[in-house]
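I am still getting used to backbone structure tokens and would like to learn alongside you. Label the sequence line and the structure token line clearly, so we can match residues to local backbone shapes. Go ahead whenever you are ready, and we will take it from there:
>
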Amino acid sequence: MVKIVSAEEITEPYTEGSLKTFLKGKGDINWIIGTIKGSGVRGEKLKNIFCELKKYGDSKRYQQVYQESRKQGWFTEKSKEEKSKLFTKYKEAMIKQAADERKLCRK
């Protein structure tokens, strides 16, 4: 029987390993940020990886990547409901804008 591995089982260890590599002094900030961005690891899972590595390697590099990840909003995880509400607000705004433009063109 073949075991099917989830994407999380691959991306989380890969992200952690890449972060360890960065904290050891290899790679630059653009590389690690691109790696984290591409991994899709977010919210509590990413926080946990950072917490485990807080004392690992170069603290300046840790702060650099931590602050950038925070700035990107990767430590917050929006629920499906929140995402749906945001999308609904966006759709409503676009419909209103289109209606306003039609009114403007009629004048």
User: Anything to note?
Assistant: The chain is about 75% helix and 0% strand.
